[in-house]
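User: My collaborator sent over this chain with a note saying "see what the structure looks like." That's all I know about it. Can you take a look?
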Amino acid sequence: MRVPEQESINLVSMVMMTRPERLTVFKEKIAKVDGAEIHVASAEGKLVVTVEADSQRALLQRIEVLQNLDGLVASNLVYHQVS
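Assistant: Without extra context I'll predict from the sequence alone. Here is the result:
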């Protein structure tokens, strides 16, 4: 028997980095990921991104999409909250 997931909000913040010359295209790719929002981006290619989903499974899928974006140099999960 499968137990349904409870409705909740899952939120993570991430620091992501791309090469400065790829920043514009990289931001466009992030914007296409459902639940992802860029809060700040520096000219050096560093971005603070939050990702929100209504289940852990959906959240992990979105993080995986972000971590596989072409142009990503580094990505660090900074914060995770479930409410």
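A starting point for your reply to your collaborator: The two ends are 25 Å apart (CA to CA).
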